[in-house]
Design goal:
alpha/beta, 2 domains, eight-stranded mixed β-sheet, 15 helices, 16 strands
Length: 405
């Protein structure tokens, strides 16, 4: 089967590792290649006005932190052709005149011509076309579907654009022309159904963890140590930015434990690092909170093996692979309600859910976990491991494609 993937975000060789570019679409693409499919990715990367590239790095990082818009390097505004793990990738930049706004139709028409020409050069006639992220994928997928007379699908990573009336009105006819709609989380799928007034439930496009990670790092018989009445080993791993609500973790632990023993390891870097260190000092918990910076993936796994509780209650968290990795190591995971893991985590069964950034509710969740018996904690830990195993990359990629075809 020939699968054409259109996406606004895709990892490229010269990406700034601090920009937070997610490889999620590549994980699906490479698994489809392993299954015998021919996959071509068109990376519709955003190209900004020249002045934006001249901004100092610290300002670019601030923009990325607060509005979630990564400003790439100037070199990333050029066309590029690469192959990664059997996946052919063509980067075709499209000018983003106003950040966080939709493209003009003349831009879409121009991009469409470039894509058609690329497919002709590659001798690639798609059997299915899949788009990730709303703009410009919705219109491009719909128009390409009409040209190639094939199956089409779009997966939403959020509804920022769709919830705007002007965008909805401009794109309604294109959306109606797409065969299958999906969302990256249960919450997003429910929002799409409501906004589009669909008679069916959009499928949920979950991510997975690498098959070799499961084989090398997960042991079903592994049992986490929950001796003692209270949890004492905590972990956060991710970018240190506002929407991750790391400050709520520090405040909740101080509220629950006071001067009692516990340890919180924080892995990652970001614009809020100094602010968080200052907060730890202000709360007099600086000796209990350890900032470890960026560490290799293998070492992150070692932290997770020793950790009893992994917490990340981010706002607008579409899907975090780190949750699954923590669950795979038997951690009791606390994730955000209405986030990417609401639906994977069943509160009280294989983890816990908390309102994003709600310090009081997080503190109550820690107290609730501490009130459980050792056997109850072990049961939640074991259920977390079983859940992680069921989300192998090969399995979720197969389910994803089945939902479309």
């Amino acid at each position: 089967m020939k699968i054409l993937v259109l996406t606004s975000v895709y990892p490229q060789p010269e990406d700034d590792k601090r920009s937070g570019v997610t490889p999620v679409v590549h994980y699906f693409a490479k698994e489809w290649v392993k299954s015998g499919n021919d996959v071509l990715v068109i990376h519709n990367s955003n190209k900004f006005i020249f002045l934006l590239y001249l901004l100092p790095d610290f300002i670019k990082q601030k923009i990325n932190s607060f509005v979630g818009m990564a400003i790439p390097k100037l070199s990333q505004s050029k066309e590029l052709s690469t192959v990664s793990e059997g996946v052919r990738i063509k980067r075709i930049p499209i000018l983003k005149i106003i950040p966080r706004r939709d493209f003009f139709q003349f831009q879409i028409d121009k991009q469409l011509k470039k894509i058609k020409y690329t497919l002709l050069e590659e001798n690639f006639t798609p059997d299915v076309i899949i788009g990730h992220w709303e703009t410009p994928q919705i219109r491009l997928v719909s128009m390409l579907k009409d040209h190639y007379k094939c199956k089409s699908a779009v997966v939403f990573h959020g509804v920022d654009y769709l919830s705007k009336k002007s965008y909805f009105n401009r794109n309604k006819r294109f959306l109606d022309n797409i065969d299958v709609i999906g969302g990256r989380s249960m919450h997003i799928s429910k929002s799409i159904k409501e906004l589009l007034k669909l008679s069916y439930d959009p499928f949920v496009c979950y991510s997975g963890i690498p098959d070799d990670y499961v084989e090398k790092n997960i042991t079903k018989e592994f049992k986490k140590n929950f001796d003692g009445e209270n949890l004492i080993e905590f972990l956060y791993a991710g970018r240190l930015i506002k929407r991750k609500n790391i400050d709520s973790i520090l405040k909740a632990l101080k509220q629950v434990y006071g001067d009692k023993e516990y340890s919180l390891n924080i892995i990652g870097t970001g614009d809020c690092e100094v602010e968080l260190k200052d907060l730890a000092n202000a709360l007099s918990i600086e000796k209990k909170v350890h900032f470890n910076g960026l560490v290799p993936r293998e070492k992150v796994i070692e932290y997770m093996k020793k950790t009893q509780c992994f917490t990340m209650i981010s706002k607008d968290e579409v899907f975090g692979l780190v949750y699954l990795e923590a669950m795979a190591q038997g951690c009791i995971v606390i994730a955000s309600k209405d986030g990417g893991f609401d639906g994977i985590i069943v509160d009280g069964e294989n983890g816990f859910l908390c309102e994003a950034g709600n310090t009081s509710e997080l503190a109550k969740t820690y107290i609730k976990i501490n009130s459980l018996s050792r056997e109850e904690k072990e049961s939640i830990s074991q259920n977390a491991i079983k859940t992680a195993i069921s989300f192998r990359d090969s399995d979720v990629a197969k389910r994803y494609l089945e939902n479309i075809i």
